[in-house]
Structures
1.
Amino acid sequence: MPLVAPSLLAADFLHLADVCKLVNESEADWFHLDVMDGRFVPNISFGIPVIEFIRKAARKPLDVHLMIEEPEKLTPAFKKAGADMLIIHLETCRNLHSNIQQIRALGMQPAVAINPHTPVELLKDILPDLHHVLIMTVNPGFGGQSFIPHSLEKVREMKKMIAETGRDILIEVDGGITIGNAHSLVEAGADILVAGTTIFQPKDPKQVIHLLKNS
Ligand code: DX5
Ligand code: ZN
């Protein structure tokens, strides 16, 4: 059964307390929080003060996805805000290994995300140091985009690479995930499904979370 991490980017920001309550009461496993800086991605979402408030209401781990340049400068601030897992993008790091060590030293679980154009092979040397990897299945920056079909092949390749390490490193997929494509992603090897629009657009988010859990 995959883990499900609702992305609050698609939720109603005017009622974040209700949204947190809903996720707490649902079968979801983690909260997925998307931080954007308007530089690495062409959009700005929310940041540290908002995460501090979500932390107070959330009863599940916070999986914080940093789509920001020079993430190492803000890593301690995200720890302080309450992040349990911190995802940084390979494309934003000149010293990826040291950034991962920094995240661990602060007591968070490190993860690395790759964009659709980035080959999974580039994560090979860093893999044993990670808690999970995030394969972007859309270009980062916006919710509500269509799933890029080639991502399935990347998940399969990543699964093989992880098997070779003999370690238990999880594969997360993010972007354009629907009830329709979730099963093929899980079959390809995805362990964590991130979903925003699919969960928060319809009237019954808990039911959608249930369906994703059972994909
Ligand atoms: C996109 C974010 C995603 C986004 C997914 O840059 O990383 O987490 O919220 O949204 P949907 O599920 O709507 O594609
Ligand atoms: Zn995300």
Note: The chain has a mean pLDDT of 98.
2.
Amino acid sequence: MKTVALAGEDDFDGWRDAARALAAAGIAAADVTWRVGESGGELFGDAAALTPAAVPHFAVPRAFIDLARTVVCHSDPQRFAFLYTLLLRLRGAPRALEDGADPLVRRVEALAKAVRRDIHKMHAFLRFREIEDDDGPRFVAWFEPEHHIVRAASGFFVRRFAAMRWSILTPQLSVHWDGVRLVEGPAASRADAPADDPVEAVWRTYYASIFNPARLKVGAMLKEMPKKYWKNMPETALVGELVAGAQAREASMVEKSGTQVGSNALAAWQAVREEARGCTRCHLFECAMQTVFGEGPVTAPLMFVGEQPGDQEDLAGKPFVGPAGQLFDRALGDAGIDRSQAYVTNAVKHFKFERRGKRRIHSKPDAGEIEACRWWIEQERSILRPALTVALGATAGRSLFGKAITIAGYRGRAHALPEGGEAWVTVHPSFLLRVQDNKEAEYARFVEDLVRVKERLTELS
Ligand code: URA
């Protein structure tokens, strides 16, 4: 029996080095015990048995390394063993990871998903409180992650708050940024973090301004912002009050001037767009250059939803600027719709692609990716509340209706949406680029759909 002692709970390098040595020596997964702590990165037991390369070296797919790096952060004590078992399996079956029905692959994928979700929660729900130390203001936050994600999640805060001095305290460890370097410190307790400060008032005002009583869904709120995080989030002190006054607020919102609602909406939209920059809700963020958020006036009554950014959109950070976007612009012009007066976004906010040589080839988002990204489009829709939303293609339709749809079944008529407003469905502009038969007729039909949308908008307003 071999025992591996890793340096820390998230010691990916230690796991990888030990796993490589064990695999090369032909050690079965059942013959290894993984431990954390004591002396790190060491193999105990009959170490001599590891020296001869009993088994030829084998390469593992990059996707496995990425997966393992994530899974190591999980709190499941068996994670190291699962990963080593999977590693050995890859030797005989290099495509083993693609078998989504395999129980071990599923288990490991589920661990990775939980870790990504925990990282997302930390990015989204951590709140800094301002204190003053000898060198001036410092922002301190307390957070209780479920998994060992603090190191993995810290880069996001470094990028986003590079100019501030901040500390994140957790029961696992603390991390401190001084504007230049990130240093680690020991585990902390909640009492080490300040309880309240004036920054909280800003959060409360912001939250009150984006809270949309007409879209109050307590179940969804709890799912996305589980109660356990509430105690560290100043704005949640308002939730009870806001929920209780929801109807009255909706009535008064309707009466408010458009300008007031518009400026609140703009602040809310900017905050959501900012948050989406750090989105890790699914794995697509790992390869794309950036989140491509929607753009256009937040008061626009018309919203277009595409599928996902393409290669050029990923580079530019803007939706519909590549070949499909140019065709879309032409059709909008032919239909008499001013794109600058509409809001244009995508169902999925990261570019999904496969590499072929130097080229990045578009790859269709799957149901899980569309579902993960609905969080953002729902926020965009709840801020804009457009009278009319046009789904360009089946992916956009799936995102809007929450289920698979066919273009043929939905095209050419209005569909009331449960949260208000109506949806129209038409083809995606890239279909018009691809189609070989009746190209001109298909384009004319697309323009016709847009003309109907424009007429309907006039009727509604
Ligand atoms: N296709 C889309 O669906 N969206 C874009 O932004 C570009 C191409």
Note: Residues 2-121 form one domain.
